[in-house]
């Protein structure tokens, strides 16, 4: 019974799927959470009771069909249950980024017209207290963790447990209403509003129906043969559409368990303890893990280092071929089996990947060396391409056809088209209904016949796999007429572990120039090994030795670009290392860590002007926002470096 699949023509909403899972696999784990170092587990039957109590509590407090419920906090089972509780009553959850500053939070609350909010803890309550007067529609805030809130006397505050207690009493007084409300829901109903990251301006509320999410989830499940025995770790923001597909959509359709870490600081430890079978992470997570591994190996003894490098050399040669089922000689297979016993297996176990059956990465390009490293260990990691407006899946890499430089073939049920200007368009069951209260933006993104313009430029290779070059609007031209694809250049630089962020300039200019951010952990470790003392990020980023290190990276990228006749002229001529990390709190990045180019160009116009002059340094002052919300001022004198470029006479070679 536990492997039984729901009939999605009948179970076409998440509340209906919850009732189905509680019936057919009621005693199987549905949710886990680590709290005070101990993993707690709830079965599907228990989750149903939790959702029922909260939904009835919301009904008793006046929550009505069509109402919006803001969800704010780290990944917590109670917050996922709150989303389904709202949907059970015909309401619409609006998950929000928990680390958003108050003004960003105020905008989403106001724009979505949320009457109720369920938040994690005191931190989120304090933010809502600060903006409550500016959000008069917000009537009730329900908090899950009561620590620190004992003496809060606001009448519009209520604890999660008290709402559930009220709900149980209301349920007894109104028997059958919970089931009746769920039965009214339909697949075409609005299921959730997910706000975009706001890369190019104010974030937009993407309206997704139950069909959008559920049918897209089913397509992914069928493509990868996922089942009820899977287990994933939910640690990425609940406001991100991907978390709603993996931790809610696929979990409810396939019936597998979703585990939540103790905190954002314990994710890697909890990952090792849990050992999920299905995992998603942006490239930066995989890069950080590999950086940690390589740093530790440098500290290991000679024999251990030799063993690691010897077997990793073998893995790089045959590991991916074995994973893809390609022919490999018997001796190499034997040696690879020994490597799995002594190196690959223990390494995957340390990383928390010993049970991994499937791993995805997306959002940015991942370095080929990093991607191939994990696949060489026997880990089935793939790249996917998607968007909020697609309910995630646009393309997926098929087993046995995984390439480091593509994002795969169209996902099941997805039609793909490349416009004359190179922009990628798609049509699928996941296509969003509309942008909430923004008809103009909807019309500019979604055509009358259902095609969605992604804004990304790409092409299909000889195998029909999609390769993304850049944002279509960001692809420009140098004054020479040569193509300038900033994201492509930025991603090549970010493949180096020492470089965390890059902003490239060149459209309408004579040459390409870049801002670089160092990765403080990787560069800090490199500096410590060389006895290079530093007082903090700004000091380390300005060290001549660090500039030399990064110049080697830039020069390497230039050599790679020189080999491509389309990008030869995009070699980087000048660069500088910024005195501070680009930060979402300072408006330089979105909450999903995408560069806000226009804002950066305006804020750092002085530095850009210096890059396109003969100056070899530039003084700068910048205001920064600290973690506690305080503002500060950083002053620095930044060195500007000239990169080595392959001369024109080598172009033909």
Please provide a written account of the structure.
With 653 residues, this protein is α/β, with parallel strands linked by helices. The chain has three domains: 14-214 and 233-257, Rossmann fold (3-Layer(aba) Sandwich), CATH 3.40.50; 281-379, no CATH class; 475-650, GMP Synthetase, Chain A, domain 3, CATH 3.30.300.30. It contains 21 helices and 28 strands. The strands form seven sheets. The protein has a five-stranded parallel β-sheet, sandwiched between helices. Strands 12-13-14-15-16 form a five-stranded mixed β-sheet. It has a five-stranded mixed β-sheet with strand order 24-25-26-28-27, with helices on both faces. A hairpin with a 5-residue loop joins strand 22 and strand 23 (483-484). Helix 2 (44-60) packs across helix 6 (160-173) and helix 12 (302-323) packs across helix 14 (368-376). The radius of gyration is 26 Å and the shape is globular. Residues 649-653 have low confidence and may be disordered.
**Using only CA atoms, what is the Rg?**
26 Å
State the fourth-level CATH superfamily of the largest domain. ANL, N-terminal domain
Give the structural class.
Answer: alpha/beta
Counted up, domains total 3
Proportion in β-strands? 15-25%
CATH architecture of the largest domain: 3-Layer(aba) Sandwich
CATH class of the largest domain: Alpha Beta
Mean pLDDT: 92
**The CATH topology of the largest domain:** Rossmann fold
Main beta sheet: strand number and arrangement? 5 strands, parallel
Q: Would you identify the regions where 5 or more consecutive residues have pLDDT less than 50?
A: 649-653
List the strand order in the largest sheet: 4-3-5-6-7
Number of helices: 21
Total DSSP E strands? 28
Residue share in helix? 25-40%
Span between N and C termini? 64 Å
Structural shape? globular
């Amino acid at each position: 019974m536990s492997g039984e699949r729901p009939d999605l023509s009948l179970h076409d909403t998440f509340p209906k799927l919850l009732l189905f899972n509680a019936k057919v696999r009621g005693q199987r784990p549905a949710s886990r959470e680590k709290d005070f170092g101990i993993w707690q587990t709830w079965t599907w039957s228990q989750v149903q009771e939790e959702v029922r109590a909260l939904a009835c509590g919301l009904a008793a407090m006046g929550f009505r069909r069509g109402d919006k419920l803001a969800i704010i906090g780290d990944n917590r089972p109670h917050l996922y249950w709150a989303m389904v509780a709202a949907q059970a009553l015909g309401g619409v959850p609006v998950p929000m980024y928990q680390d958003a500053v108050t003004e960003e939070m105020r905008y989403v609350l106001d724009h979505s017209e949320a009457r109720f909010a369920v938040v994690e803890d005191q931190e989120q309550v304090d933010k809502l207290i600060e903006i409550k007067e500016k959000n008069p529609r917000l009537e009730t805030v329900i908090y899950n963790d009561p620590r620190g809130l004992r003496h809060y006397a606001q009448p519009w505050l209520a604890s999660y447990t008290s709402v559930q207690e009220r709900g149980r009493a209301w349920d007894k007084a109104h028997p059958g209403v919970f089931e009746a409300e769920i039965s009214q829901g339909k697949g075409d109903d609005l299921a959730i509003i997910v706000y975009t990251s706001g890369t190019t301006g104010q974030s937009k509320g993407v309206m997704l129906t139950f069909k959008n999410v559920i049918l897209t989830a089913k397509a992914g499940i069928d493509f990868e043969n996922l089942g009820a025995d899977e287990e994933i770790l939910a640690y990425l923001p609940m406001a991100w559409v991907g978390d709603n597909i993996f931790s809610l959509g696929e979990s409810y359709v396939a019936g597998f368990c979703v585990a939540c870490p103790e905190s954002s600081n314990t994710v890697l430890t909890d990952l090792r303890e849990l050992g999920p079978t299905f995992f998603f992470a942006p490239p930066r997570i995989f890069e950080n893990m590999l950086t940690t591994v390589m740093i530790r190996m440098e500290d290991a003894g000679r024999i251990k280092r030799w063993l690691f490098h010897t077997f990793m050399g073998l893995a790089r040669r045959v590991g991916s071929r074995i994973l893809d089922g390609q022919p490999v000689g018997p001796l190499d297979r034997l040696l690879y089996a020994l490597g799995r016993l002594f190196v690959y297996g223990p390494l995957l176990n340390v990383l928390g990947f010993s049970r991994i059956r499937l791993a995805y990465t997306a959002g940015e390009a991942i370095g080929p060396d990093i991607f191939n490293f994990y696949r060489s260990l026997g880990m089935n990691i793939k790249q996917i391409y998607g968007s909020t407006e697609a309910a995630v899946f646009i393309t997926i890499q098929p087993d046995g056809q995984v390439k480091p430089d593509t994002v795969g073939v169209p996902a099941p049920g997805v039609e793909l088209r490349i416009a004359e200007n190179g922009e990628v368009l798609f049509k699928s069951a996941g296509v969003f209904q509309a942008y909430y209260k923004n008809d103009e933006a909807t019309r500019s993104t979604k055509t009358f016949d259902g095609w969605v313009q992604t804004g990304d430029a790409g092409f299909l290779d000889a195998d029909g796999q999609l390769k993304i070059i850049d944002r279509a609007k960001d692809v420009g031209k140098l004054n020479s007429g040569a193509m300038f694809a900033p994201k492509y250049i930025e991603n090549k630089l970010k493949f180096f572990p020492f470089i965390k962020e890059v902003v490239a300039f060149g459209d309408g200019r004579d040459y390409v120039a870049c801002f670089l951010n160092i990765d403080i952990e990787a560069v800090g470790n490199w500096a410590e090994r060389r006895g290079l003392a530093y007082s903090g990020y700004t000091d380390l980023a300005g060290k001549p030795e660090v500039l030399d290190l990064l110049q080697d990276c830039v020069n390497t990228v230039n050599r790679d670009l020189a080999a491509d006749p389309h990008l030869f002229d995009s070699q980087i001529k000048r660069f500088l290392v910024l005195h501070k990390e680009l930060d979402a709190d300072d408006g330089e990045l979105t909450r999903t860590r995408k560069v806000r180019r226009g804002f950066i160009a305006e804020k750092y116009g002085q530095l850009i002007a210096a890059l396109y002059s003969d100056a070899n340094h530039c003084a700068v002052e910048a205001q920064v926002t600290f973690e506690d919300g305080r503002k500060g001022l950083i002053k620095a004198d930044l060195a500007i470096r000239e990169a080595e470029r392959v001369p024109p006479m080598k172009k033909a070679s």
